[in-house]
C-alpha cells in the first residue's frame, strides 16, 4: 500500500485553491445563489506581474514555491467565506459575495499590499507584485461573462503598469475613487500598524496658557513616523477612525499621556494633560477599564487628566457614551468639548455631557480681531461656557492681536502657535523649566 495521499481531483495541489474546472462549477452555483437572493457576486482576477522572470530564474520548482506563498497571501486577505480558484499558472480568482463594491476594492488593495511584501526564494529576495481586475455580477449573468470582465479589467491594470487594481467598467474614468484613494488609505493603515508595533508613535504636547502665565494644561497630540517619514495627523487620524485602529491608538495615547502627567508631577509640575479620545473608544463598554488601567499604571491622580471629546462624538450620544463620560467625571477626570462651534458639536451637547472645559474652534479665532460678528459669537460662546461652570479655551491663537481679542472676549486660557507649538515630552520639560526660571 502506498503512503502518498490520493490527489484531490478538484483542488490544485500547489495553491490549495479550487482548480479551474471545479472553480467554474462553484462560480455557477454562487451566481445562481446571488441571482436568486438579489445579491452580488464579485470576482477578483489576480495575475502575477513578471512571473516568467521568476520561472526563468528559479525553475519550475522555485516558481511553484512562489505560487504557494502568493496563494497563502491571497487566502489571508480574502474573506473567509470566499471561493479561491487557480485558473492559470500564475492566475487566481477570488469569488466573494458582497454588499458593495467599495468593500471589495479594499480587499483588492489589501491583497496587492500583501503580495508585494518581499519573499526569500533560494536565498534571493524577490519583490513580487500582481495586477487585479475587479468585476461584479449583473442580473442573470453567467460565470464566463463575469470572469471575462474581471480578466479584461486585469489586463487594463497591467497596461497601466501593473501592481494595481482596476474595476471593470471604470477603466476609462481617470482618478476614480477606487484604486488611488483606497490604496493610499491602505498604505497609511499598514504604516499605522507598523508604527504601533515598532515604536513609530509619539505624543507631542502643546501648552494652554492662562492670562497670568500659568499653564492651564498641555494637550497631547499624536505623531506618527514610519521609515523616517512623518505622516501628518490630518491624514492618519481619519484613516485610523475609518479602520477602527483609533481604538488601539487611543489606548496607547491614554497610557502615554497619563505617564507624561506622572513625569511632570514628579518634576514638580501639577499640570493637567489633555488626551484626545475618539468616538469609537467611547462607544465601547471597555473604555472605563482602559482609562482606569492607564491611571493606575501611571499612578497619577485623575484630576491631572482631561479627555478631549472630538466632534464626531456628538452625532449620537448613546447610553454607553453617557455612562462612560459620567463615570470618568465621577472619577475626577476632566472633560473638554473640542472644536466647539463647528460640525456636530452643538448647544444640545452641553446639556448631555458633564463637561468641564469648552474649546472654541480655531475657525473662529483666525477671524479675530477684525471680524466683529465673529467676535460677538466668541464672546457669547465664552459667556455660555463660563455660566455652565466650564473653563473656556480659545484654540489656534497665532498673533498677539488674537490673544488680546480672546482675553477681552472672556476666554480663560489660550492655546496656539503664539505661545508654543506642540513639542516632544523632553522639550516640554525644558520649556517648562526655562519658563520657571524667567
Ligand atoms: P485638535 O484636537 O483640534 O488639536 C489641535 C490641532 O491644532 C493640532 O493639530 C495642533 O497642532 C493645531 N494647532 C495648535 N495651535 C495652532 C495654531 O496656532 N495654528 C494652527 N494653524 N494650528 C494649531 P494636529 O496636531 O495636526 O492634530 C490634528 C487633529 O488630530 C487634532 O485636532 C485631533 O482631533 C486629532 N488628534 C491628534 N492626536 C490625537 C489622538 O491621540 N487621538 C485622537 N483621537 N485624535 C487625535
Ligand atoms: Ca483636541
Ligand atoms: Ca480642537
UniProtKB/TrEMBL annotation:
The GGDEF domain, residue ranges: 39-170
InterPro entries xrefs: Biofilm_reg_signaling (IPR052155), EAL_dom (IPR001633), EAL_sf (IPR035919), GGDEF_dom (IPR000160), Nucleotide_cyclase (IPR029787), Rev_trsase/Diguanyl_cyclase (IPR043128)
Domain EAL, first and last residues per copy: 185-436
Transmembrane segments: none
Gene3D superfamilies attached to this UniProt entry: 3.30.70.270, EAL domain (3.20.20.450)
Domain of life assignment: Bacteria
Name this protein carries in UniProt: EAL domain-containing protein
Source organism phylogeny: Bacteria, Pseudomonadati, Pseudomonadota, Betaproteobacteria, Rhodocyclales
Amino acid at each position: 500500500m502506498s503512503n502518498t495521499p490520493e490527489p484531490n481531483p478538484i483542488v490544485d495541489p500547489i495553491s490549495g485553491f479550487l482548480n479551474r474546472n471545479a472553480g467554474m462549477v462553484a462560480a455557477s452555483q454562487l451566481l445562481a445563489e446571488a441571482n436568486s437572493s438579489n445579491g452580488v457576486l464579485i470576482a477578483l482576477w489576480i495575475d502575477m506581474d513578471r512571473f516568467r522572470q521568476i520561472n526563468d530564474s528559479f525553475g519550475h520548482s522555485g516558481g511553484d514555491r512562489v505560487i504557494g506563498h502568493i496563494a497563502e497571501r491571497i487566502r489571508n486577505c480574502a474573506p473567509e467565506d470566499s471561493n479561491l480558484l487557480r485558473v492559470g499558472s500564475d492566475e487566481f480568482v477570488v469569488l466573494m459575495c458582497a454588499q458593495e463594491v467599495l468593500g471589495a476594492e479594499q480587499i483588492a488593495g489589501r491583497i496587492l499590499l500583501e503580495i508585494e511584501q518581499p519573499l526569500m526564494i533560494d536565498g534571493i529576495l524577490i519583490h513580487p507584485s500582481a495586477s487585479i481586475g475587479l468585476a461584479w455580477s449583473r442580473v442573470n449573468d453567467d460565470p464566463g461573462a463575469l470572469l471575462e470582465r474581471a480578466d479584461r479589467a486585469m489586463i487594463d491594470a497591467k497596461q497601466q503598469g501593473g501592481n494595481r487594481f482596476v474595476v471593470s467598467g471604470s477603466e476609462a474614468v481617470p482618478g476614480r475613487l477606487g484604486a488611488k484613494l483606497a490604496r493610499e488609505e491602505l498604505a497609511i493603515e499598514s504604516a499605522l500598524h507598523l508604527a504601533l508595533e515598532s515604536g513609530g508613535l509619539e505624543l507631542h504636547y502643546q501648552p494652554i496658557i492662562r492670562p497670568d502665565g500659568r499653564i492651564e494644561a498641555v494637550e497631547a497630540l499624536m505623531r506618527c513616523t514610519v521609515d523616517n517619514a512623518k505622516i501628518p495627523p490630518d491624514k492618519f487620524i481619519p484613516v485610523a477612525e475609518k479602520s477602527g485602529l483609533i481604538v488601539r491608538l487611543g489606548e496607547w495615547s491614554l497610557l502615554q499621556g497619563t505617564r507624561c502627567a506622572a513625569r511632570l508631577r514628579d518634576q514638580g509640575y501639577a499640570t493637567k494633560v489633555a488626551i484626545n479620545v475618539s468616538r469609537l473608544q467611547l462607544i465601547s463598554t471597555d473604555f472605563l477599564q482602559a482609562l482606569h488601567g492607564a491611571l493606575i499604571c501611571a499612578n497619577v491622580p485623575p484630576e491631572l487628566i482631561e479627555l478631549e471629546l472630538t466632534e464626531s462624538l456628538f452625532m449620537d450620544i448613546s447610553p454607553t457614551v453617557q455612562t462612560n463620560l459620567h463615570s470618568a467625571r465621577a472619577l475626577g477626570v476632566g472633560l473638554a468639548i473640542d472644536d466647539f462651534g463647528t460640525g456636530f458639536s452643538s448647544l444640545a451637547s452641553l446639556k448631555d455631557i458633564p463637561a468641564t472645559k469648552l474649546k472654541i474652534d480655531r475657525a473662529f479665532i483666525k477671524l479675530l480681531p477684525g471680524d466683529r460678528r465673529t467676535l460677538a459669537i466668541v464672546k457669547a460662546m465664552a459667556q455660555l461656557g463660563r455660566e455652565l461652570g466650564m473653563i473656556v479655551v480659545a484654540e489656534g491663537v497665532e498673533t498677539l492681536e488674537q490673544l488680546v481679542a480672546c482675553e477681552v472676549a472672556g476666554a480663560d486660557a489660550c492655546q496656539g502657535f503664539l505661545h508654543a507649538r506642540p513639542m516632544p515630552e523632553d522639550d516640554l520639560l525644558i520649556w517648562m523649566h526655562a519658563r520657571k526660571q524667567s
